[in-house]
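Support case: nicotinamide-adenine-dinucleotide complex. Customer-provided input:
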Amino acid sequence: MASRIRLGIIGLGRAAGVMLPSFAAHPDIEIVAAADPLVAARERFASVFGGAVFADARAMIEGAALDAVYIASPHQFHVEHALLAAGAGKHFIIEKPLALTLDECDQIVAAARAAGVITLVGHTQGFNPALRRMRAIIESGELGRLRMMNNLVYGDFLYRPRRPEELDTRQGGGILYNQVPHQLEMIRVLAREPIRAVRATTGIWDAQRPTEGAMTAFVEFDSGVSASLTYSGYDHFDSDALCGWIGTGGRLRQAAHGAARRRLAAAGSGSETAARTARGFTGGGAVQQAPPCQPHFGFLLVSCERGDMRVSAQGVEIFDDAGVREIVLPPCRVAPDRDLVVDEFVLGVRTGQAPLQDVAWGRETMRAVLALLHSGQQRREIMLK
Ligand SMILES: NC(=O)c1ccc[n+]([C@@H]2O[C@H](COP(=O)([O-])OP(=O)(O)OC[C@H]3O[C@@H](n4cnc5c(N)ncnc54)[C@H](O)[C@@H]3O)[C@@H](O)[C@H]2O)c1
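Agent response - structure generated as follows:
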């Protein structure tokens, strides 16, 4: 392998736009190529990062000298692109959701194993440094055993411009495939044990956007640790109101209840796909200033036997018998959670040691996602173990 890991990007949309600065800032990564069917996206990429551009992933994987790829194409292409990468012996980072069905996930896991490549499913909110710190506190035993987690996320997911398939559950649309993986990754990173059972109610409340936009769920882990997960993407309440108006990425933001609905209504439905494309990779540059606060995903409260923890502006806030204190986390290079994705991937490629959140882990997250979806549809608890 060359001294730096030569990386190709598949899909130059919104996900790539927010990951590229973290790749660009890493001394061990060299961004050498990208593939996207959109000419404008390829031109923007070439103007910012240079490198070769291709209209499709296979052409890039076969035509460019690469060690690894980052798969950030829409969900429905993940299985195809992961199999292409593994088949060519390339290490890969793949965006969530790993794939749309368990069968597809199994194909990816088997192909990656056969090829002996390093894989990582990310970015997910399980990479937030504050969560990793909470996990270290749980492991230290300082607050006793982990008992219960509560995560509440209210936002505008369903009313940000969407492609048609993002509003069709059968094609991977709705919050279950797109947002709930983040919630599950957070609680799995904290609990680090198999999920025993799930029960969910899911809501499709807008006939114009007929996919799941809300969920309330109960997740029980093997040892009895439990989690309640609530998500609403209906753009009324916004849970950043409970987090000092620090946005998901760690930047301060304005209150915006209902703003996405109003923008969508003003634009008219005909232009939604174009608006979705415009929200993608804008070629905003390789350099990005680090956010002033820690990233978070809604309001998360983690309870151990002897204390509670939550993500604070600068790290982790601990509430125990002594009162309240904050652990301040060190500054990051670009974006704390995405830097960690790149660090863990690079470490894996360099040492051959699989990252925690590899494709086998991602398969288990998708198993739980699908169980929550079916639980909501069938109105019953689903046992995973
Ligand atoms: N981790 C996160 O926080 C996060 C954020 C956004 C998106 N995502 C994930 O990233 C993926 C992409 O979402 P997005 O919001 O960037 O979508 P997007 O629509 O903004 O971008 C997708 C890009 O992929 C391109 N594309 C379409 N078909 C392709 C193909 N066959 N080969 C190569 N490129 C192709 C499109 O032209 C577009 O430029 C999704 O799976 C989504 O779940 C993750």
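DSSP finds twelve helices and 15 strands in the chain.

Case will auto-close in a few days if no follow-up is received.
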